[in-house]
Design a protein that fits this description.
alpha+beta; Tumour Suppressor Smad4; 2 domains; seven-stranded antiparallel sheet; Diacylglycerol kinase; kinase
């Protein structure tokens, strides 16, 4: 069969047009090597009008999501310049960003308008779990830039609470070129939001006997940007005490939920071959939840694990306020200090109290209001209220600063976690006190899609159109249905042997 020359030309031209169109799309994101690599070989400096609309730096935890992280790294490097795509297993983000911003400043001082515009438009993509995303946020926060680059998060972990809170979903969007391009297009369209960060200070008495460190170094949440022991010369240091400091973006929790998380992470370290994808990870998490007694604590555990048996809670409601004690209900076994409306696989344990309520108690949760929400749970059965429309945990308080004081009790340790990273925390054995204090630190910019669940106090209905005018409004019913579509949150997943029809 003979094809007419005009038709053949049209087909070839169509392919070329498609190819050019794809290359034109990627130009929106590519950054020339000389902007990122100091003393790189000289290039022709592009004209200022040629500045990409959405220049990006991409950080990928190649060990996250089984093989997904590695596959994603290959795809991004094939689509963009390799100098703007970084494997966090090879180089830490603080070193990368410090080097890049130093080079940008040098180029700006030399009058390079193109580099100046790149810095103004720069956005960051980070792919990994919540710990990885929090690490990047912390590094950017520590740079204290006049305008920090906003960050988009690719969900590659087990919980993915941080990306879910800002509309990026809970499941990995795919590692093939088309899926990656689609994600990049969403990054280009995304809106900036500010998000609070929280400083955590932990102090405990230096032990008289035993190891120097009360917590083994590998037990600490290593992925957080600043968590480590304070030196003796630091102003935060207290003689005779170990002082640790760190930060978080989503939540700090302690008690039974953190115990489940700790057991999961321990199992993953011992048998990494069993944790190859999100589905198997979540199934394993559910099994561990049941085995740890989160659903069926024994009578011997029931009172000793109640938090008020070994801790006192002090709060400061406003900046410059005074400390006051808050009574912890006697049945509470887990406390969550929550910054974002996404915990344990995507639930909002705080719910949505009315903005019109003037009798003082609670407001809706905002990610930039300088307040953190504190919620309690009796057990996983209590947590199942989150599956219901308008469901929420026991609201304890909203505060600008929080201080937990741990004293000698019936148990010698508890469990804590920050943004998904758990550790086993020793409790006092004598008269000493272990203190954990949480305070507002600063803010950084994050990218949010149109499906963002988080709300700003400056614009409560943006970027999504969710309303919050009524106490635990009907919008919660819609959100709960969406949660159920993804399945129950891992920490509160219903045991398979339980008939849900029997629940009251």
């Amino acid at each position: 069969m003979v094809i007419g020359s005009h038709l053949l030309g049209s087909i070839v031209g169509g392919k070329m047009a498609h190819s050019n169109s794809g290359e034109d799309f990627l130009k929106n994101f590519k950054i020339p090597k000389y902007v990122l690599v100091p003393k790189s070989e000289s290039e022709n400096v592009p004209n200022v009008p040629d500045v990409p609309q959405c220049p990006v730096l991409v950080f990928i935890n190649s060990r996250s999501g089984g093989q997904l992280g590695g596959d994603l790294l290959v795809t991004y490097r094939s689509l963009l310049n390799e100098t703007q795509v970084f494997d966090l297993g090879e180089e830490t983000p603080d070193k990368v960003l410090s080097r890049i911003y130093a080079n940008l400043e040098k180029l700006k001082q030399n009058g390079d308008e193109f580099a100046t515009k790149i810095q103004e438009k720069l956005r960051i993509i980070v792919a990994g779990g919540d710990g990885t995303a929090g690490w990047l946020l912390g590094v950017v926060s520590d740079l204290k830039l006049s305008h920090s680059p906003p960050i988009a998060t690719v969900p590659l972990g087990t919980g993915n609470n941080l990306p879910f809170a800002f509309g990026w979903g809970k499941k990995n969007p795919g590692t093939d070129p088309q899926s990656v391009k689609s994600f990049m297009n969403e990054v280009k369209k995304a809106k900036e939001m500010k998000i609070d960060s929280w400083h955590l200070l932990m102090r405990m008495k230096t032990p008289k006997d035993g190891p120097l460190d009360p917590i083994a170094p590998l037990e600490l949440p290593h992925s957080l940007h600043a968590f480590g022991r304070v030196s003796d010369t630091n102003e935060m240091s207290v003689e005779g005490c170990h002082t640790f400091r760190g930060g978080f973006w989503n939540y700090f929790s302690m008690g039974m939920d953190a115990q489940v998380s700790y057991a999961f992470h321990t199992e993953r370290k011992l048998h990494p071959e069993k944790f190859k994808n999100q589905f198997s990870n979540q199934s394993t998490y559910a099994k561990i939840t049941r085995s740890q007694g989160w659903f069926s604590s024994s009578l011997s555990q029931s009172s000793s694990r109640n938090i008020n048996q070994f801790a006192k809670l002090m709060i400061m409601k406003n900046h410059g306020g005074h400390w006051e004690e808050l009574q912890i209900p006697s049945s509470i076994k887990s406390i969550v200090c929550l910054n974002l409306p996404s915990f344990s696989g995507g639930f909002n344990p705080w719910g949505m109290p009315s903005r019109r309520r003037h009798n003082g108690e609670f407001t809706p949760p905002y990610v930039d209001d300088g307040l953190i929400e504190v919620v309690g749970f009796r057990d996983a059965w209590h947590g199942l209220v989150l599956l219901a429309p308008k469901g929420h945990g026991t609201r304890l308080t909203q505060a600008h600063r929080i201080r937990f004081l741990f004293h000698k009790g019936a148990i010698d340790h508890t469990y804590m976690r920050i943004d998904g990273e758990p550790w086993k925390q020793p409790l006092p054995v004598d008269d000493e006190t272990v203190m954990v204090e949480i305070s507002h630190l600063r803010q950084v910019n994050i990218l949010a899609t149109h499906g963002c669940r988080s709300k700003s106090i400056n614009n409560p209905v943006s970027p999504s159109s969710h309303g919050a005018d009524e106490e635990d409004s009907d919008e919660e019913a819609h959100e709960s249905a969406e949660y159920r579509k993804f399945g129950a949150a891992d920490t509160f997943k219903l045991p398979e042997e339980i008939d849900i029809s029997q629940l009251s």
